[in-house]
């Protein structure tokens, strides 16, 4: 079951308690991101996990990575599947998480209208592209939701030496898919992940303009929450997510028009609490 946003949180303790009392399948609360849902990967993983592990039931909250980490700090989720590696490592180091494991990666791309009025396509990298947008006062759509994408965008503005503000800069407060649609309608520039753009491409009037910059790598990890209500179920899900079955599903999601994979499994060493 998927629920979006904080409105779902009030029922979580009730659901967990009712399941324990009635003998129902134990619930594991997973907080994860819009990019995983909008790309279609979340539905694929959810279905496969339910078939492989009927003894555990996922209850999924779809939010930005920043909000997912806050949910974890409040112990309102058992496990997190997000894409903010530095923040995830800090979450574990501060004692909120048991460990963080790498799951997969793809990349961010700077998209914009084919006419490219700010000449972003001629940029030397993402930061240069952002500087060109600001100098031209060309419309730019930010997710503005403290998601992993939004955090990456802010870091690129900082590297560009620009504090974005003004009528040209729109903070949409939306998930990845919805924000891409807004950018397309406004013929604006935007930072987005390759997988979500590829899925929505037939509906978008946007083209890739800056890619293959090392700062645009987009890494996803799974983090076990310290003090989780269902640590055993959370561990089962995390172990499955970094295993071969899930890796096959991640690889099998497909490629973009140029043949690049939408996601690539990327196992790395554990980041564990001290």
What does this structure look like?
The chain is an alpha/beta fold. The protein folds into 2 domains: 2-106 and 217-272, Periplasmic binding protein-like II (D-Maltodextrin-Binding Protein, domain 2), CATH 3.40.190; 107-216, Periplasmic binding protein-like II (D-Maltodextrin-Binding Protein, domain 2, 3-Layer(aba) Sandwich), CATH 3.40.190.10. Helix content is 39%, strand content 23%. The chain contains 11 helices and 12 strands. Strands 1, 2, 3, 4, 5, 8, 9, 10, 11 and 12 form a 10-stranded mixed β-sheet that branches. Helix 7 links the parallel strand 6 and strand 7. The radius of gyration is 19 Å and the shape is globular. The protein starts with a strand and ends with a strand. Mean pLDDT is 90; it is low at 6-22.
- Output the helix-strand order: EHEHHEHEHEHEHEHEHEEHHEE
Number of helices: 11
Quaternary structure classification: single chain
What is the percentage of strand-forming residues? 15-25%
Q: Looking at the structure, what is the overall shape? A: globular
Note the main sheet.
Answer: 10 strands, mixed
